[in-house]
Structure formats: structure tokens, C-alpha cells
Design a protein that fits this description.
The complex is a heterodimer. Helix content of chain A is 59%, strand content 0%. By secondary structure, chain A is mainly alpha-helical. Chain A has one domain: Ferritin, core subunit, four-helix bundle (Ferritin, Up-down Bundle), CATH 1.20.1260. Chain B is an all-alpha fold. The longest helix of chain B is centred in the middle third of the chain and has 29 residues. Chain B is globular and about 65 Å long. Classes of the chains: A mainly alpha, B mainly alpha. Chains A and B meet through helix 2, helix 3, helix 5, helix 6 and helix 10 of A and helix 2, helix 3, helix 4, helix 7 and helix 8 of B. Chain B: This is Ring-1,2-phenylacetyl-CoA epoxidase subunit PaaA. Chain B: GO terms for molecular function: phenylacetyl-CoA 1,2-epoxidase activity. Chain B: It comes from Halovenus aranensis.
């Protein structure tokens, strides 16, 4: 698909309106990935087997790496990691509430279903950013896509496997029923800036189109595995995208930033190339 | 025909034996005990550090903690596999024993870690100590053990760098940060010295493991090697070595730690998994494992029934 919109150029060349739209797109990407990663790390040293522990750690690190890429793009617009994460008000985050819900101990079905619903949305979203008029988004999209494909394959494989077991199927169905409305919040607008995101070609598809695509793919795969999908449901509230979050997010943010606060830090460590762990 | 112990002792050398050799039970049991202890320690070390993935004060530190914890689970996986190759215990049996409190693991992982300033005590000092021991195990007579050490030592080297980087940052931080680290260091230092176990004359398992080449350095040699390098490093970062336990410098690269200054009652309580922290760590991990027992049951059922769609991908 060729874009009819002009390339937006360097971060320094953006007009005020353009920057506002670029930021809105970047914040939803960065915050989603960070919080999804943060919740994945819950399963480290808690997954059912050593092998699944390694796999879930991979996902967490991939998402963290993506969050870092998106936050870097935001920092090109004059922000810092401190102001974006560690000193930020939790209500300034714009991630979907799907990613902030806590896991119950042992609820591996939630982890698998959440990963699946999120990764399908992620794949669709990245495809809509491939031709973005903003180069820092385009370039990063390309780097991220390969890894997301693997996440999706992994989630699908678990779902196929769980669909063959009665107990596991019940748990998966409960997770679908609980998470589906939250997953719909991924496609909620961040505000009136949404129309600029499309008009400027920062993203080449509308939220409605992407949601329809997502709903169809999710429905088709899950139905094939014998699950019921609550397709007529409304997005859960709070939606997150409008800065309104569940209390779970506030406590998670509190814990994530506790060391930074307790040590009285004013800078977040950048390791750069000094030692590449 | 099973090799007799005398032949084992004669041939004992670096990577001398592998699963094609018919090793005597005594050797296989001793090797299993070492490998199982080592593997368990990887898992329990990861369990201790996991809260700091979330609490790390930057995205890059968070990534490093997540990667380190993942590496440790990977090391556990490799070491259990090397242990299984001895035919004494299966991985399931070893993991079950770890959950029910029968599995033994390193003393330092029995103590709770509350604050981020404590993380370099593990990631720099304990991992640094472990590196000393592990480097010598590349010459272990059980080839699968030595082979696992090649990869593990490489990754452990990265972990020590990560720990050192945190220590350096903290010791270059505010006065308050430096004081907190010093306090943590004083608390952890005796445990770190005990990492190497009692001095050679008091160690019980040493003789056989050394005679058959499973172990290639003594507790005293390893402790000296650690002290030579890490006391210096600690001082360079501005840490003060506590006056007690007393450490006598023999002036020839060797040291004597005054054993009476260390709490060996506590050490032996810890090594029997009976310390308060031991119970807390073991039970915490066991509860997390029991909560996902249903997933393992499902997987076992599918392996037996042979109806798993893509078992290799879904793990």
C-alpha cells in the first residue's frame, strides 16, 4: 500500500499538531509493551516447567526491548525515561487495561490467552505501521515484527494443546470470557488526536478496521479449537487509553518504581555499550 | 562391566568419563549429589532474585535482571540433564525433592533479600565466588558436568559484570546509598565466606569427590582465590571489610579465616533446610509450583496418550 501522505521528516521538523499525533501513537505502543512485559515477568520462576519458564522470559524480554525502542522514539521528542516511567503519574500512562490486570497464582490459562489476544492485536497494529509517514516508527516496526511472529506461534500452540484437555479447556474458556472485553480496549481511541493519526498517515488503518480484523481472526481460531468467543461484548471499563486505569495498575506502578524512590534516584541507569548484558 | 573404584581413581582426569562408561554406583551417586545441589542452587538463586526484575530502577536494569533469572533457569535445566545422565534420579524426582524440602542448595540462597542494595551481594560477590568454583569444574571427570560448565561460566561472567555494574553505581551514588550498601555488605559478608564451606579438615564429602576427579579444587583453595580478588575489589569500590570474622593474610596469597568467628550452627541449620529463611524460600517456590501442577498433569497425560499436537513448540 502506498501512502499518499508526505513523510513527516525528523523529530525536530514536526509541527505542534504533528508531534501531538506522533506522541499519541508512540505512547500507546510504549506503555502497552512495558506493562505487558512487566506482567509476563510474574511467571519467571513460576511457570509450569523449566522450558515454559524460559519461553515466558523470552517474551518478557522481547516486550521490554520493544518498550525501550518506543520510549527511545518518544525521548527524541524531548522526554526522559525518568519523566516517562519513574517519575510519571500512573494516570499519565495510556496502555490498554488488558495488560495491567494481575495474574492469579497458577492461572497459566490467563497467561496464554492474554498473550494470544495481545499478540494478534500487536501483529495487526504493526502491519498498520509498516508504511507510517514517521520514519522512527517505520524503522522500529520492521525490527519488532520478527519477534512478534514467534510469540503468536507459541500462544497458538499452547491453545491447541489445552483445547484437548477438559480441565484446561474450562480454564481457557474462563480466561477468554474474562479477558475478551479488556482486549477490546486495545482499539479504543486516546482522544480527539486519533483522527490526526490517520489523517497524517502515522498509522495507515483506522482503529475500527483493525478491531474488526482482530475480532475475526480471534473468533475464527478460537472457535476452531472449540471455544466460545463473546463477540457481541462491549469494551471493558476503565479502558486505560483515556488515562483511566484499574487500581491494579496503581499498585503495580508503585512497586515498579519503589527502588527508584527509596534510593532517592533522579536518573534511570542507561548501560549503553559499557557492558551489554 | 562396571568399572571398579580403583580404576576410576587411576583414570580420573578432566572429562574422562561419560554416559557410555559403566560407572560404579558410588561415583554416580557422588556426581548426582554435586550436580543436583548445583542445579537446585540455580533455581533457588533465581527465585531469590526474581522480585528485582520488577523493582529494578531502569528498563535496562530490568532487562538485565530478567535475562539473568532466565539464564539461571537455563543452567538448572542443563545441570539437571547432566545429573539425569548418571541414572540415579530423574529431573522430576529432583524437582519434587526441591519442592518438598529434601533438595539441598547453596547457603546464600536461604536468606531473604529485601532491598535492591542487597542485589550485588548475590550478583557480584556470591556469583563471583561461584565463578571460582565453576571454573575448576570445567575439568571435572564427569564430561556432561564439565561440558555444561563451558556455557554456564560464560553466562556467569556476564552476571558478575551486571552485579559489579550495580555495585559501582550504588557506591558512586548518594551517601545514603553507600551506607545502605555497606550495611548490606556487613550482613552478607559472613555468609559469603561460608559459601566455600568449612575449611578442608572439616569437610566430609571432599575426599571421595576429589579422588575420582569430580571436584578439582579444595574449599580452602577456592576461598583463597576468591579473597585474593574480591577483597581488593570491595575496597576499591569503597566498601570496608568488617573486622569480624577475622581474616589473617599469610602474605603468600593465602588467607586464614578464623572459623570460630563464623556461626557454623547457623550454617549447618541452613544446610539442613531448617533455617527460617530456608523454609520461607522453599515453601514460597513450592506453592508457586503446586499452583501450576494442573498444567504439568495435562502435559503428562498428553505425552502418555500421544495426542499432543505440537509438543515441541508448546513448552
Amino acid at each position: 500500500m502506498s501512502t499518499t501522505n508526505a513523510d513527516l521528516g525528523d523529530p525536530t521538523e514536526l509541527s505542534e499538531d504533528q508531534q501531538r499525533a506522533v506522541e499519541a501513537q508512540l505512547f500507546r505502543l510504549a506503555d502497552d509493551e512495558l506493562v505487558q512485559a512487566e506482567r509476563y515477568t510474574f511467571w519467571q520462576v513460576r511457570a509450569p516447567t523449566l522450558e515454559s519458564d524460559l519461553a515466558v522470559s523470552n517474551n518478557a524480554q522481547d516486550e521490554l526491548g520493544h518498550a525501550r525502542l518506543w520510549y527511545d522514539a518518544i525521548q527524541q521528542l524531548g522526554y526522559t525515561e525518568e519523566s516517562l516511567i519513574y517519575e510519571s503519574d500512573p494516570d499519565d500512562f495510556q496502555h490498554s487495561t488488558l495488560v495491567e490486570l494481575p495474574f492469579e497464582e497458577g492461572d497459566w490459562a490467563d497467561a496464554v490467552v492474554r498473550g494470544y489476544l495481545y499478540d494478534v492485536a500487536e501483529e495487526i497494529r504493526l502491519a498498520a505501521l509498516e508504511e507510517s509517514t514517521y520514519a522512527p516508527i517505520r524503522d522500529r516496526t520492521d525490527r519488532i515484527q520478527g519477534e512478534e511472529e514467534y510469540h503468536l506461534e507459541h500462544a497458538r500452540s499452547w491453545l491447541e494443546r489445552m483445547s484437548l484437555d477438559d480441565d484446561a479447556s474450562e480454564r481457557v474458556q474462563a480466561a477468554i470470557d474474562k479477558l475478551y472485553p479488556y482486549a477490546l480496549t486495545i482499539f479504543e481511541p486516546v482522544g480527539d488526536v486519533e483522527s490526526d493519526i490517520e489523517a497524517l498517515g502515522i498509522r495507515t488503518r483506522s482503529l475500527d478496521e483493525m478491531r474488526a480484523d482482530w475480532a475475526e481472526r480471534v473468533d475464527s481460531f478460537l472457535t476452531e479449537q472449540g471455544f466460545a468467543v463473546p463477540t457481541d461484548t462491549e469494551p471493558a471499563t476503565p479502558v486505560g487509553r483515556d488515562n483511566d486505569h484499574t487500581d491494579h495498575w496503581h499498585s503495580l506502578h508503585e512497586e515498579m518504581t519503589s527502588t527508584y524512590r527509596n534510593l532517592g534516584r533522579d536518573t534511570a541507569t542507561r548501560l549503553m555499550d559499557e557492558d551489554d548484558e | 562391566m562396571t568399572m571398579d573404584i580403583e580404576t576410576v581413581k587411576e583414570r580420573a582426569g578432566s572429562r574422562e568419563f561419560n554416559p557410555t562408561d559403566d560407572m560404579p554406583e558410588e561415583y554416580r551417586k557422588a556426581a548426582t549429589r554435586m550436580l543436583e545441589f548445583h542445579a537446585n542452587s540455580e533455581i533457588m538463586g533465581a527465585y531469590l532474585e526474581r522480585p528485582f526484575i520488577r523493582k529494578a530502577p531502569s528498563i535496562e536494569r530490568k532487562l538485565a535482571f530478567s535475562a539473568k533469572v532466565q539464564d539461571e533457569i537455563g543452567h538448572g535445566q542443563m545441570l539437571y540433564r547432566a545429573a539425569e545422565s548418571l541414572g540415579i534420579k530423574t529431573r522430576e524426582e529432583m524437582l519434587d525433592d526441591l519442592a518438598n524440602g529434601d533438595g539441598k542448595f547453596l547457603n546464600c540462597f536461604h536468606y531473604p533479600m529485601e532491598s535492591y542494595v542487597e542485589t550485588p551481594m548475590i550478583a557480584f560477590f556470591v556469583d563471583g565466588a561461584a565463578m571460582r568454583r565453576q571454573a575448576t569444574l570445567k575439568k571435572s571427570s564427569w564430561e556432561p558436568y564439565a561440558h555444561a560448565m563451558d556455557k554456564i561460566c560464560f553466562e556467569e561472567g556476564m552476571h558478575v559484570k551486571h552485579g559489579e555494574s550495580i555495585l559501582r553505581e550504588l557506591m558512586n551514588g548518594s551517601k545514603r546509598e553507600q551506607e545502605m550498601v555497606q550495611e548490606a555488605f556487613e550482613e552478607w559478608w559472613p555468609r559469603i565466606l561460608q559459601f566455600f564451606g568449612p575449611s578442608d579438615d572439616a569437610s566430609t564429602h571432599h575426599d571421595f569427590a576429589a579422588d575420582v576427579g569430580l571436584k578439582t579444587a579444595t574449599n580452602d583453595e577456592l576461598r583463597n582465590s576468591f579473597l585474593n580478588r574480591y577483597m581488593e575489589k570491595a575496597k576499591n569500590y569503597g566498601l570496608e571489610i568488617p573486622d569480624e570474622p577475622r581474616i589473617r593474610d599469610n602474605g603468600d596469597g593465602t588467607y586464614e579465616v578464623v572459623e570460630d568467628d563464623l556461626d557454623w550452627d547457623e550454617f549447618f541449620t541452613v544446610s539442613k533446610n531448617e533455617y527460617e529463611g530456608s523454609i520461607q524460600q522453599i515453601n514460597g517456590r513450592r506453592e508457586a509450583q503446586e499452583a501450576v501442577q494442573w498444567v504439568r498433569n495435562m502435559m503428562d497425560g498428553q505425552t502418555t496418550a500421544g495426542n499432543s499436537p505440537k509438543p515441541q513448540a508448546a513448552d
